[in-house]
UniProtKB/TrEMBL annotation:
Its EC number is 2.6.1.76. The keyword Transferase applies. Belongs to the class-III pyridoxal-phosphate-dependent aminotransferase family. GO terms for molecular function: diaminobutyrate-2-oxoglutarate transaminase activity. The keyword Zinc does not apply. Its cofactor is pyridoxal 5'-phosphate. PROSITE patterns: AA_TRANSFER_CLASS_3 (PS00600). It comes from Actinophytocola glycyrrhizae. Pathway: Amine and polyamine biosynthesis; ectoine biosynthesis; L-ectoine from L-aspartate 4-semialdehyde: step 1/3. This is Diaminobutyrate--2-oxoglutarate transaminase. Keywords: Aminotransferase, Pyridoxal phosphate, Transferase. The gene is ectB.
Length: 416
C-alpha cells in the first residue's frame, strides 16, 4: 500500500487508470518518477491546450513571480488583471466583433456555469433551465442539475431540480425533426414546461462522448432561443480556447451566445482561471452579489495574456488544429474499417476526437493498452464507450504521428 491508497480519498479516478507517479512534464509528454515517458493525448482534460510547461508562458510567469507581483487579490484592481482584460478585449473580442462584459466567478469551470445560471435566473425572473442529453457542466449542484450523467448526478444526494433535458443533436438518430419536441412543449400551455430562463449547451460534448453538434443545429437553437425569449448559454469550458479550431467553438456556426462560460485553457499554463462572459445589458449584478476568495489568480492572468499574444494574433494555431484534427479523424476512420467485426466509429471536431466502441469495456481496454505503450487517453460517454483523444494544440507533427501509431497498436491489440 502507498500513501495515495492509504491517505487519499477513494474518489480519485485518473490515477487508477494510469497507476504511476508522475514527476515531470514538458510539451506533449509526461514523465514518471522512474523516467518513463508518456505521450499525452489527455492534456489535463483540456486545460493544457498549449502543452505542459510551455516555455514562453513559463518565462512570463517566472518573471512575474521574481518581481514579487501580486499573487492573490480577490477582485481588486491589479496590473496583471488590467493586462489580461486589455489583451482579451484586443485579441479575442474586437476581431470577432463581440461585446461582452467579463466576470471572474471563481477558479473553475463549474464556477463559470453556476454564475451563468444564477445570472440568467436573476435577469429573467424565471427558474427553469433547458439542458441536453449527455451534457456535462460541472459537479457543483447547479452545474450538476444541467448535467446528464446519472452516476455523477447520483452523487448529489438531493433532488436536482429546475432543469429539463432535451435531445441533443442526433440523439434520436435523425428520426425527429430538429427541435420539434422542444418547440411543441414551449408552444403548448398544457405541456407542463415552465417558461425557461435559458438554454445551456456545449457545441461539442466532451465528457458526454465527443458528440459534435452540426452548425445548422446550433443556428436553429440560437433562433429558437430568440423567438421564445430564452437566453443562450454556451459552455465553452473544455472546447473553447481553440480546441475545435477557432478560439470559441461556436464561431463556425456564426452564432453569438448571450452568455459564454470559459475555464480550463483560458488559464493557459494549467493555472486555475474562469470567466463568465455576458452581454452588457445582462450585467445586472449588485456589487458583491456573487463573489469568492479566488476570483482571478494573478499568475493565471499573466500566463493567459501571454498565450493570447503568442497564439491568437494570427490564424496559424487554428489552421494547425484543424489539420491535425483531420489527421486523427482519418486514422480513427481507417481503424474502424479494419475491424468490421468490432463496431466502432470516429467522431469529433478539431483536436477533440473520439473512437466510439459498442461498450465501455472495449474502450477501457483500448485506453489501458495505449497506456501500456506510453500513450495517455481517457474514456468518455455515458458508458465510457468512447476512447477520447485530446492532445495539446501545440503537439508537433512527429509527436502526433507517434501517438496515432500507439493508438493503432492499442486498437489492434484489443480488437484483432
Amino acid at each position: 500500500m502507498n500513501v495515495f491508497e492509504t491517505v487519499e480519498s477513494e474518489v480519485r479516478s485518473y490515477s487508477r487508470g494510469w497507476p504511476v507517479v508522475f514527476d515531470r512534464a514538458t510539451g506533449a509528454y509526461l514523465h514518471d518518477e522512474d523516467g518513463n515517458a508518456y505521450l499525452d493525448f489527455f492534456a489535463g482534460a483540456g486545460a493544457l491546450n498549449y502543452g505542459h510547461n510551455n516555455p514562453i508562458l513559463k518565462r512570463a510567469v517566472i518573471d512575474y513571480l521574481e518581481r514579487d507581483g501580486v499573487i492573490h487579490a480577490l477582485d481588486m484592481q491589479t496590473v496583471a488583471k488590467r493586462e489580461f482584460l486589455e489583451t482579451f478585449t484586443d485579441v479575442v473580442m474586437k476581431p470577432r466583433e463581440l461585446d461582452y462584459k467579463i466576470m471572474f466567478p471563481g477558479p473553475a469551470g463549474a464556477n463559470a456555469v453556476e454564475a451563468a445560471l444564477k445570472l440568467a435566473r436573476k435577469v429573467t425572473g424565471r427558474e427553469s433551465i433547458i439542458n441536453f442529453t449527455n451534457a456535462f457542466h460541472g459537479m457543483t449542484l447547479g452545474a450538476l442539475s444541467v448535467t446528464g450523467n446519472s452516476m455523477k448526478r447520483g452523487g448529489a444526494g438531493i433532488p436536482l431540480v429546475h432543469a429539463t433535458p432535451m435531445p441533443y443533436d442526433n440523439y434520436l438518430d435523425g428520426q425527429v425533426e430538429d427541435f420539434l419536441w422542444f418547440e411543441r412543449l414551449l408552444d403548448d400551455p398544457g405541456s407542463g414546461l415552465n417558461q425557461p430562463a435559458a438554454v445551456i449547451v456545449e457545441t461539442v460534448q466532451g465528457e458526454g462522448g465527443i458528440n459534435a453538434a452540426r452548425d445548422e443545429w446550433l443556428r436553429g437553437l440560437a433562433d429558437l432561443c430568440k423567438r421564445h425569449d430564452m437566453l443562450l448559454i454556451v459552455d465553452d469550458v473544455q472546447m473553447g480556447c481553440g480546441r475545435t479550431g477557432p478560439f470559441f467553438s461556436f464561431e463556425s456556426a456564426g452564432i453569438t451566445p448571450d452568455i459564454v462560460c470559459l475555464s480550463k485553457s483560458i488559464g493557459a499554463f494549467g493555472l486555475p482561471l474562469a470567466l463568465t462572459l455576458m452581454r452588457p445589458d445582462l450585467d445586472v449584478w449588485e456589487p458583491g452579489e456573487h463573489n469568492g476568495t479566488f476570483r482571478g489568480i494573478s499568475p493565471a492572468f499573466i500566463a493567459a495574456s501571454e498565450a493570447l499574444r503568442t497564439y491568437w494574433t494570427d490564424d496559424k494555431l487554428e489552421k494547425s488544429t484543424l489539420a491535425k484534427g483531420e489527421q486523427i479523424g482519418r486514422t480513427m476512420t481507417e481503424l474502424a474499417e479494419q475491424f468490421p467485426g468490432t463496431p466502432m466509429h470516429a467522431k469529433g471536431r478539431g483536436l477533440a476526437r473520439g473512437l466510439a466502441f459498442e461498450s465501455g469495456d472495449v474502450a477501457g481496454k483500448v485506453c489501458r493498452a495505449a497506456f501500456e505503450r506510453g500513450l495517455l487517453m481517457e474514456t468518455s460517454g455515458p458508458d465510457g464507450e468512447v476512447a477520447k483523444a485530446m492532445p495539446p494544440l501545440t503537439i508537433t507533427d512527429d509527436e502526433l504521428a507517434k501517438g496515432l501509431d500507439l493508438l493503432s497498436d492499442a486498437v489492434h491489440a484489443v480488437c484483432a
